[in-house]
Amino acid sequence: MNSKLPPLRALQAFESFGRHSSVRAAAQELGVTPGAISQQLKLLEEHLQTPLTVKDGRRAALSPKAKSFHAVVSIGFEKLRKAQALLAQQNSELDINVSGLPTLLMKWLHPKLHSFEASNEGVSIRLEATHDEPEPEFLDHMFRLTYGAASERFPHARALFHDVCFPVCSPEFLRKNPEALEPSNLSDMPWIDIDWGPSFSSVPKLGTWLEAQGFPPPKRKPVSIHSLSSSALEAAASGKGVVLAQLSFASVDLELGRLIRISQYSVEMPEPYYICWGSLILEHDKPRSFLNWILAEAKN
Prior knowledge:
The chain is an alpha/beta fold. The chain has three domains: about 10-90, Arc Repressor Mutant, subunit A (Orthogonal Bundle); about 90-160 and about 270-300, D-Maltodextrin-Binding Protein, domain 2, CATH 3.40.190.10; about 165-270, Periplasmic binding protein-like II (D-Maltodextrin-Binding Protein, domain 2). It contains eleven helices and 13 strands.
């Protein structure tokens, strides 16, 4: 195999083709003809001295060996795309960039931002809601709001708050199911689950809360399972069932009466939420003011 790096154009065509599983789609994305994509794939095969595609019916697909190669190449291109986006942010006139977990931005930070904007007139803020953790070096130009051990990969981090969870439902659901006010009945209630994925298996569920109170686990399957806490809260607000809500995420809906807390008992989240940053970002006044503000807000 050739020890020199392949041509970048050929790698780009390969990465796009593998992601779309289509020569035509890759051509459309890169603004070239399908023939040009095929030519670049052939050039890459010759460079690597390895077949990269196989016939799958009438269409071409990645060969088994090419799939593992594509996975690594895709990571590299994704980092290039993120670096380009970061440069675009730096070249913009925005004063503050904040990347954060979607529900943390939507349900906790966003309702509070008006107080920061009121005392920092004319400040411009970009909020990027994503589960993907940015590269640590990006935090010289942005803040990251995240949860638990993910904060350890960044240069600087401060805990914002340690959340608690309790069951909630909508007023409509409670009218139809008044027995839900008795905690021992929740095992039989329609319920909504939140699943952040295998990396967060210790995050409490309704069964965790029931066990902590000495009650049996839910006796039925959840009516729906949500990867976003905000989506689960909306399902509960629409009357679909009971959900174990985090105080920081449900507080506005509780104040508005869209959700009702049906027990004063709570369980703690295993880890706190954090704000993370790099050293260079605090050389500027507005980001420094934002950090001081959000740390003060988290104490309230």
